[in-house]
TrEMBL record:
Residues 87-278 form the ABC transmembrane type-1 domain. Belongs to the binding-protein-dependent transport system permease family. It is a multi-pass membrane protein. This is Carbohydrate ABC transporter permease. It comes from Streptomyces javensis.
């Protein structure tokens, strides 16, 4: 009968290595959980506030959970305010500005990334610098321009302002992606007789869809949440966007926190759902140009 050898105890160094690895994993997951909680907490608080009664919101002791809950604030948002009109205005301005911005960004990025443009480094530096400008510094010049053109309190004036606001960000996102595509594609298209616009439309854009989706999503979020330009350039509910409309809920003596929270949830939830549905495409578009084959 063959004797079964006794198990060899693990070396102390291997045990310590496993413990260190386990500790690192636990700390990493705890850090990720803390960041997620820190990011999601404001939205969860707004969600809870939107279902609480007014007397609970005005009490000294805060109510963390909406117990008992109410849908009165959501009813008030769509009956006591012109919120539906603000939503329509935001959709019109945001979609228009994002679509025009994507077209201009694709043309500009193709020229900067694929064509021998003199001084492209300076152009890119200027584009990056424009994206860092605080909005307050451009409000007065843009106001004077739109006033001279008669475009104040119009969809056209606000949409054109949003195009300029999101365009540097779109170019910055698309540039790395366009640069990562092999130049042999342009050469093959030129041999087949395709011009620059045909090459861009039929060859580059289909391959650049992840980057275009990421740029479009970032531009959409930027334009949807913008407040300062919409406040300065619109003066009537017929053209004001959602952020300006929500700010107008409060009166001189009363702030309807529940109504404002409900409106914020209605506005934020579609963006959250869109980002969750397209998160892989957005991440792929942002990181596609990070490593060049």
């Amino acid at each position: 009968m063959t004797a079964i050898p006794a198990p060899v105890p693990a070396a102390p160094a291997a045990i310590r290595a496993r413990r260190r690895a386990l500790t690192r994993r636990v700390l990493f997951r705890a850090a990720v959980g803390a960041v997620v909680l820190w990011s999601v907490a404001p939205f969860l608080w707004q969600l809870s506030t939107s279902f609480q009664r007014d007397r609970d919101l005005s009490s000294v002791t805060p109510h963390w959970l909406p117990i008992p809950g109410t849908l009165e604030h959501y009813r008030a948002v769509f009956t006591d305010y012109e919120f539906s009109k603000y939503l329509v205005n935001s959709v019109i301005v945001t979609v228009t500005a994002t679509a025009i911005g994507l077209v201009l960004a694709a043309l500009a990025t193709y020229a900067l990334a694929r064509l021998p443009v003199p001084g492209k480094g300076v152009v890119l530096a200027v584009v990056l610098g424009l994206s860092m400008f605080p909005q307050i510094s451009i409000v007065v010049p843009l106001y004077l321009v739109l006033n001279a053109l008669g475009l104040l309190d119009t969809y056209t004036g606000l949409s054109s302002s949003y195009v300029g606001l999101a365009l540097p960000l779109m170019i910055f996102v698309l540039y790395a992606h366009f640069r990562s595509l092999p130049t042999q594609l342009d050469e093959a298209a030129a041999i087949d007789g395709a011009g620059l616009l045909r090459t861009l439309r039929s060859v580059i854009l289909p391959l650049a869809l992840p980057g275009i989706a990421a740029a479009g999503m970032l531009g959409l979020i930027t334009n949807w949440n913008e407040f300062m330009l919409a406040l300065a350039f619109t003066s009537s509910p017929e053209h004001q966007t959602v952020p300006v409309g929500i700010a107008g809920f409060q009166s001189q003596y009363f702030v309807p926190w529940g109504d404002m929270a409900a409106a914020s949830v209605v506005v934020t939830l579609p963006l959250v759902l869109i980002v969750m549905l397209f998160q892989r495409r957005i991440v792929a578009g942002i990181t596609s140009g990070a490593v060049k084959e």
